[in-house]
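Researcher: Sequence recovery benchmark, item below. Answer with residues only.
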């Protein structure tokens, strides 16, 4: 869903890339043909759901916005940072393995 896309992955990557590299982690992106390409070790374009689930199951950490990937990560107990901007995480966060999830939400002052 376009309104749920996270616009600051470049900034997030800039903040953590050096630390990840120094600790031996590779960075990969899962995207589609229309997605902005991050400067990372590998970019996987238009995977099927089984391929995406396999990559997530093997990942040391997943950083994702509020989408299908966060639910897959929770089923595999993959450590995750979940970025919420549009929807409230109380209503849409994955329900499994909550101790492996760190949720970041944007400030919402709906009044």
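Model:
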């Amino acid at each position: 869903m376009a309104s749920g896309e996270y616009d600051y992955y470049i900034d997030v990557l800039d903040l953590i890339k050096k630390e990840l590299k120094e600790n031996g982690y590779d960075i990969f992106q899962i995207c589609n043909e229309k997605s902005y390409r991050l400067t990372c070790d590998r970019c996987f374009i238009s995977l099927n759901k089984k391929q995406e689930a396999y990559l997530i199951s093997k990942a040391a950490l997943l950083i994702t916005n509020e989408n299908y990937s966060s639910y897959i990560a929770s089923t595999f107990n993959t450590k995750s940072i979940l970025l919420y901007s549009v929807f409230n995480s109380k209503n849409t966060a994955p329900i499994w393995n909550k101790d492996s999830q760190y949720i970041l939400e944007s400030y919402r002052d709906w009044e």
